[in-house]
Design goal:
The chain is an alpha/beta fold. It has three domains: 225 residues, Rossmann fold (3-Layer(aba) Sandwich), CATH 3.40.50.12780; 164 residues, Rossmann fold; 96 residues, 2-Layer Sandwich (GMP Synthetase, Chain A, domain 3), CATH 3.30.300.30. It is 27% helix and 24% strand. It is built from 15 helices and 25 strands. The strands form five sheets. The chain has a nine-stranded mixed beta sheet with strand order 2-1-11-10-12-13-14-15-16, sandwiched between helices. Strands 7-6-5-3-4-8-9 form a seven-stranded mixed beta sheet, with helices on both faces. Strands 17-18-19-20 form a four-stranded antiparallel beta sheet. Helix 1 packs antiparallel against helix 2, helix 7 packs across helix 8 and helix 9 crosses helix 10. It is globular and about 70 Å long. It binds adenosine-5'-diphosphate.
Length: 546
């Protein structure tokens, strides 16, 4: 039987809009607290209900400023309550929130602003000098909104149309009905880091954002509930802080925003004073926190669970968190183009009887696809590879929160047969656990064979004298490329090249052994907290040719 048209379901057809999340949170978890370390240094606290009120004031204010459906309003801000209000006030009213990364250079910010055709820019007080530097090059911005009070407005500034956030929203009532519109309408815009070429915009829709929020709160993913206190360390200015500004309010949890104070001491103290149970961040941030706690012999009294992603979580860091601090580690993988979550790590019931070492090997993988994300690995010719945990190839994904094309069609068609090529190389095992071998542009091609750099870095970082390690491919006269290890020693530790190379013996095939080790004071870190391997490759290009 093949009916011409299906029998339609008869349920309400309510569009999935982000305003619905805040409206729900204010109504059902109205007393949930939101605590923010302000850039001024003090702590601000209020409730979900007050956040909803102020977001509606902002929506009214933006309307009065002439911001209309689909127009872009940019933010340049740390994680905090005003930024959260912008998440909902801007997108909820039908405009598009464009989050910008303050770690970018002034020229890059001007490029992104002009490309996005931003109408207004909201920014934290501390970014005034940065905004003054690139504002003269912005061609579409009608006004700048300083996210502070009247007392924080500068006496002198080169910015023409500078408005005060608190004055602006206080001049408007909270009497605002969130408009209902097509759930496929644009919601937020985030540019990729653009390590090569110009950054490209990823334009999330309300539907993609709400579906991502639902899925990411699931027990196998972030497992957020109304009994949690969640601290997003991962920035709201990049990939929507992994969706936490949406998944946490819909779960009713308390939120704690660290603002600009991301050093180990500040993060530790805020976690303890606010009773943080769950947090998310990139490995470089946790390094600071763990070093601080270890050096001072501290324990966490409430911190129980963390998601680490953005780059591979070194096994040594995972072990420290679990064994020394009793914190459960969920390894997460994703990217700007995926809203960003794609997979999360964890154990299946059948793994519970395995040994500790075998369990760790599984937890170390980037994990299982989240329902909504489909993935596969293919070879250079696009042929699908088996899920055997050994075959590795280009990782492809598809799903309702994965990019279909970049903003303004930059880069043309990005999909291959309906799949998005992630640029990552990975294996997938028979249970569906994905493990990243490398980024395709970082993988080392030695004599036609591939060497994955993440494995080598993980081994180096398991050495007690190593603080950080990056493995890069550098030109080699015979093998095209060979691995070079760039290492930062732990303070006060001595470690020589031979000792570190000896530590690799028996852990990898001989031809994977790094050709050399260089010691550095620091490693270059980019705007999203990741080690910039392209800069290291440039710096050490001649290393094996000399
Ligand atoms: P960019 O750093 O260019 O802004 P994203 O922030 O979107 O890009 O980062 C996406 C990339 O980060 C992924 O394609 C992958 O290479 C890397 N990545 C993210 N999470 C992990 C992880 N858990 N393990 C290894 N690599 C990861």
């Amino acid at each position: 039987m093949h009916p011409q048209s299906p029998l339609m379901g008869q349920m309400m057809n309510q569009p999935l809009l982000v305003s619905g999340i805040l409206e729900f949170a204010a109504r059902h978890y109205g007393s949930s607290e939101i605590v923010s370390r302000r850039v001024e240094g003090d702590l601000h606290r209020y409730t979900m209900r007050e956040c909803h009120q102020r977001a509606r004031r902002l929506a009214n204010a933006l309307h009065a400023l002439g911001v209309r459906m689909g127009e872009r309003v940019a933010t340049l801000a740390w994680n905090g309550y005003r930024h959260l209000e912008a998440y909902y006030g801007v997108s909820g009213s039908g405009a598009v929130l464009h989050t910008m990364n303050p770690r970018l250079h002034a020229e890059q910010l001007a490029y992104i602003c002009n490309h996005a055709e931003d109408q207004f820019l909201m920014f934290d007080v501390c970014f005034l000098p940065l905004v003054e530097a690139f504002a003269p090059h912005c061609t579409t911005i009608k006004g700048y909104i300083l996210m502070g009070s009247a007392a924080q407005m500068p006496a002198h500034t080169s910015i023409d149309n500078l408005l005060c956030y608190e004055e602006l929203i206080n001049a408007h009532s909270d009497d605002f009905q969130w408009p209902q519109f097509d759930e496929n309408a644009a919601c937020t815009l985030c540019y990729t880091s653009g390590t090569t070429g110009n950054p490209k915009g990823v334009l999330y829709s309300h539907r993609s954002t709400v579906l991502h929020a639902y899925a990411s709160a699931l027990p196998n993913v972030l497992n957020v509930s109304s009994r949690d206190t969640v601290m997003p360390v991962v920035p709201m200015f990049h990939v929507n802080a992994w969706g936490l500004p949406y998944s946490v309010p819909l779960s009713g949890a308390k939120m704690v925003f660290p603002g600009a104070a991301l050093d180990g001491k500040s993060v530790y103290e805020l976690m303890e004073s606010e009773g943080v149970t769950f947090s998310a961040g990139v490995p470089t941030v946790w390094l600071g926190l763990l070093n601080y706690a270890t050096e001072h012999g501290l324990k966490f009294s409430t911190f129980r669970r963390t998601v680490i992603g953005g780059s591979a979580c070194p096994p040594a860091m995972m072990n420290t968190l679990i064994d020394q601090f009793g914190v459960e580690v969920i390894h997460g993988w994703g990217m700007t183009e995926m809203s960003p979550l794609g997979t999360t790590g964890g154990l299946l019931s059948k793994h519970l009887k395995l040994s500790r070492e075998e369990q760790r090997k599984i937890l170390q993988k980037q994990g299982h696809a989240i329902y909504g994300v489909d993935m596969k690995i293919v070879d250079d010719d696009g042929k699908e590879l088996p899920w055997d945990g050994v075959s590795y190839g280009h990782l492809m994904v598809r799903g309702p929160w994965i990019v279909a094309r970049y903003f303004k069609d930059e880069g043309g068609d990005v999909l291959q047969d309906g799949w998005f090529p992630t640029g990552d190389v990975s294996t997938i095992d028979a249970d569906g656990f994905m493990q990243i071998t490398d980024r395709s542009k970082d993988v080392i091609k030695s004599g036609g064979e591939w060497i994955g750099t993440i494995d080598l870095e993980n081994i180096a970082m398991a050495h007690t004298a190593v603080l950080q390690a990056a493995c890069i491919g550098v030109p080699h006269p015979k093998w095209d490329e060979r691995p070079l290890l760039v290492v930062v020693r732990r303070p006060g530790q001595t470690l020589e090249r031979e000792q570190l190379l000896a530590h690799f013996e028996g852990k990898v095939a001989k031809w994977w052994l790094p050709d050399d080790v260089v010691f550095a004071e620091t490693l270059p870190v980019g705007g999203t907290g990741k080690i910039q391997k392209n800069r290291l490759r440039e710096q050490y290009r001649q290393h094996l040719l000399k």
